[in-house]
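Figure 2 data, in text form.
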Amino acid sequence: MYPPLTSAKFGEYVLKSKGMVVVNFWTPWSDECRYMSSLMADVQQLLDEQDSIVQVDWDRERQLVRELEILGVPTLLIFVCGKEVARYYGTMSEGELGNCIVEAKRRT
């Protein structure tokens, strides 16, 4: 399991990061969200040492959800050096998720 991220820590942890941060918006009651969360460990090897994966609970962090205009879950946001470079809605395969991470790295 990856650390939960709160609205209070979002700026410090994501926007001030020097690496890539994959932010997984999820809910514990959604099968699709649990599936996507399980894939995160499988793509961890694609990340560099300064990169990280965090999870935001859709139900508990509604203000952040509104601020970032998250339309549904599961949603992945990928930030590089504090800037959003990619946004993905819905489920995907391990290969698709890996490709999304590799593509985001190329944009840096």
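Caption note: The chain has a mean pLDDT of 91.
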